[in-house]
Amino acid sequence: MPDTPAKTVSPAFAEVAQAAAHAFDLLPSGPEEPAASGDAAQRLRTDPETVERDLIKLVLTIVELLRQLMERTALHRVDEGDLSEDQEERIGMTLMILQDRMTELCGRYGLTMEDLNLDLGPLGSLLPAGGDR
Prior knowledge:
mainly alpha, 133 residues
């Protein structure tokens, strides 16, 4: 990234750009052998034979994250009394159907719900341990 004159870049943007550049410097430069202990972060494979499954895994991971967030929001709204009984029933049914579809799709592609839980390194895992069930 070429240096831009300081007068055209806001200081806040320059700090963000510097932090991003530093974060990219921390990334490994190439493929590494997995640690013997098996604690190495899972990575998506770029093998043409597995690209479809890996893409499905990524999409299902995002859908599961959103499903869990929607469930937590619904539970919070129920606890607050923001919903009528009919709304609670519809939301509960919708979340149960979505969970069933997630299980069905995982089975179709040979994945488990555990496979969707990405390891974020020092931040921990993306999804709560054992899901939110």
